[in-house]
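Supplementary Data S3. Sequence and structure tokens for construct A.
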Amino acid sequence: MCDNAKKLILDLQAEHEFELEEVDISASDDLTERYGLMIPVVELDGEEVQFGRIDQFTLYEALTAKNRF
């Protein structure tokens, strides 16, 4: 995982309770074919939130929307 993306995600753990799971796509042919150069990929409950360039605002919005329900 990109160090910058990981830092953004970990910073958001202070406000939102979630578990971070890192997956090495090179360990899976399916994931390598699916994501290739689009890493890092951030998923929330199995849904892609962002890929490639990760920004804190978009992640915050996705976490906030999930926690409303």
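Construct B, processed identically:
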Amino acid sequence: MRSAGGVIVMAKLVKAPIRFLPQEWNYSNKTHYNNAEVQRSRSERLVAESERLVDEIENTTRKTQRDVNKKLEQRIEEITYWKKELNTKLDELIIENDLLLAQKTRLLKALDKLQEPLCIAQQCLVNRENRVGIDLVHDEVERELMKEVEVIQGVMALLQRTLEQTDEQIRLNRSAQFYLEKDLKDKFTALTVDDYAASMTNNTPDISYVANVVRIEGNSVTPQEWIDFTNTNIVKADKQKNSSKALRSLIDSILAETTNDVLKQNEAVNLAFKFRIQETKDAKCKLEVHLNRVLSEIAAQEKNIDLLKKTIMDKEGPLKLAETRLDTRTKRPNVELVRDPAQYRLISEVQEITTNVDRLRETLGQAEMELKGLRRNQLALEEDIQVKENTLYIDDVLNSNLRKSISVNYF
């Protein structure tokens, strides 16, 4: 073998091409053959591996895309299901809230309608304060009227509390409705996004690379948390719907019971008025009967007094005659002034007439006293009849007409 230095020297000296031995030539050729074969084999394996890898990746990509599409479809179905549930609950809650609003309107109308019977009951009490004399009595009508005022005021207080409870339930219903609508809005957006994502293909024009997209958002939730959130909204809506139904049923019951209470008391007051008016009419009739009797007796007593006076006057003649005769007979002379039977009878006549006149005058005095008593009774009876007429005007005219304007159907 040549040394490297010798070759260099020969090249510098002779400047001739390098010469190789046949063995070197053969070795070089074999080396190139082997290297080429190795490289070709490696390349063939790489091509085969590349083709296999391409097929594998293509299959994996397609499988993954199919799985992703399936997952998106499942997600869309899940969102659609919960969206349908939310829509159902929202519709039910809206209907229930409308029904509760209708009940609130009934409560407001009931409160408004109760103002009239309350004012009438109070006005009846005020009117009855205008009764006078003995008729200004704390009777059954007054007790029933006061009870009616208490019943109506109690009913109004109960209805007012129920109205406040209804307002609070309406607020809770609307709160639950708000969360359902918000959840529905979010699900509609999510469904739109996922529908669009599911509709994309490898050939969709607006697909592109997005930087830093492979990540989990910090505010994201787990599927179970997502279900729990929606289920909580549905459960809350169900709870408020059931509470609202129970309240509507309670309102129906309250309106029915209070209507019955008000009507029952109204009937009690009217019945008390009916009995009291009849009682007053009967008393007035009896007073009028007694007044007529007293007037008749006054007339009879006046005739009696006139008769007594006339009789007393009529006795003046006989008394004067008897006294004149006695006086005349005193003029008889001497022994003729005798106490004869005629003298004694004249004396007896004067005494008799005087006694009878005294008795007549005493009777006249008694008759005049009785006449005064009768006239006092007349005035008392007439005054009491006027009291009864005033009472009847108040109860049978003013108050009865007022009570006729009360509507029987309050609510």
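The CA atoms of residues 199 and 337 lie 170 Å apart. Confidence is low (pLDDT under 50) at residues 1-13.
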